[in-house]
């Protein structure tokens, strides 16, 4: 990421952690406290082991995943080159989240205690790299709920709402998937907003509705909705058309 996008050194955060999801990422604010229950349950006590495994999975994704390589190339082409040692961190998180993007530090967080296979890590990386792309290239303001809704719509639209995930989320069935993709995207975006903002489902849905059409039709930088391996292969092959590969 270019220096112009890095946070100012020593700048005090103005984000209320109770309203912007930082309680889900305790290492972000140095609030990790070991408890007997956490150690006995396996949630705590293996942090360094989990971190090392997580970092190896991240490296593997950067070497092998076509979508991760495409997103990294798109970020670089936009003047926002990603440095794994600076912009991606593996951390211990709340049990109900698997990853996130921190605009204050311009970092992608992989929740090492919850993301324990290559597929999950790849999905998190691509999803959060879309947020990073929007933060750097589109200058979105994560404190603005409409901006947040837009980037969540884009991430869900491009990579999340495959047939499998839509069925598991309850937004589609085998016979209705063709007509349910938009509902899946809306549902995922609303859930993502609620997870990190102190807003109601009604408020989150209203924000999604306000920006949905414009953001749903914006498929940069992947260029297509990825619903399977063939789509990711085609997206990577087409990257040179846009100067990404």
UniProtKB/TrEMBL annotation:
Comp. bias (Basic and acidic residues): 1-17
Protein name, per record: Mitochondrial inner membrane protease ATP23
Pfam families, sorted: Peptidase_M76 (PF09768)
Region Disordered: start-end pairs: 1-21
PANTHER family: MITOCHONDRIAL INNER MEMBRANE PROTEASE, MITOCHONDRIAL INNER MEMBRANE PROTEASE ATP23 HOMOLOG
Assigned keywords, A-Z: Hydrolase, Metal-binding, Metalloprotease, Protease
EC number: 3.4.24.-
Lineage: Eukaryota, Metazoa, Ecdysozoa, Arthropoda, Hexapoda
InterPro entries attached to this UniProt entry: Peptidase_M76_ATP23 (IPR019165)
Similarity comment: family membership: Belongs to the peptidase M76 family.
Protein's UniProt keywords contain Hydrolase: yes
